Amino acid sequence: MPRQLGELEDAVMTRVWQWNRPVTVREVLEDLQQERSIAYTTVMTVLDNLHQKGWVRREVEGRAYRYTAVSTRAAYSAALMNEAWAQSDNPAAALVAFFGMMSPEQREALNDAIRIAQRATPEGGPAGPAAPAGTTQGGAGPEGPGR
Fold first, then answer.
1. What is d(CA 1, CA 141) in angstroms, rounded to the nearest whole number?
2. What dihedral angle (degrees, nearest 10) is formed by the CA atoms of 61, 65, 66, 71?
3. 39, 45, 104, 139: least CB-packed within 10 angstroms?
4. 87/89 Cα distance (integer angstroms)
């Protein structure tokens, strides 16, 4: 299970996920600077840390790296939800409480997801996560990025 991203890591990964293409430190820096004062070296360090943790891969381009997400935000969110649910001593009660917190729109999205998952598996059996059990897109290991 991946550990939850820190606040700055999440801000950086949000851009990498949204842009869905290889990005440079400079591009992320310029976008982050619209919201906060931040140094180039800080963004460079965060991206390097994310690379070391397995969240992004990088390729050299000239004198800089281009970073690409290893997994999707959806896979990251699913892994966090699965881990939280697995930690409960009463998973059914945890799900009931979680569903009770959902907005009508979220409940409708959940119903849509259940219908899709049931169609994607033989005889409507359990579908499992979007990626193979214990992995994330890009082939990360059982604990995903941050292992």
1. 9
2. 140
3. 104
4. 7
Residue 3: its pLDDT value, please?
76
Separation of alpha carbons 75 and 81, rounded Å: 10
Length of the chain: 147
Angle in degrees, CA 42, 17, 1, rounded to 5:
85
Residue 145 CA to residue 69 CA, distance in Å, equals 11
Backbone angles phi and psi of 102, in degrees to 5: -75, 150
73 pLDDT exceeds 70? yes
Q: How far is CA 13 from CA 8, 87, 107, in A?
A: 9, 26, 27
Cα atoms found within 13 Å of the Cα of residue 87, Cβ hemisphere only:
7
Q: Give this prediction's pTM.
A: 0.68
What is the full DSSP assignment across the chain?
-PPPPPHHHHHHHHHHHHHTS-B-HHHHHHHHTTTS---HHHHHHHHHHHHHHTSEEEEEETTEEEEEESS-HHHHHHHHHHHHHHT-SSHHHHHHHHHHH--HHHHHHHHHHHHHHHHHSGGG-----SSSTT-BTTTB-TT-TT-
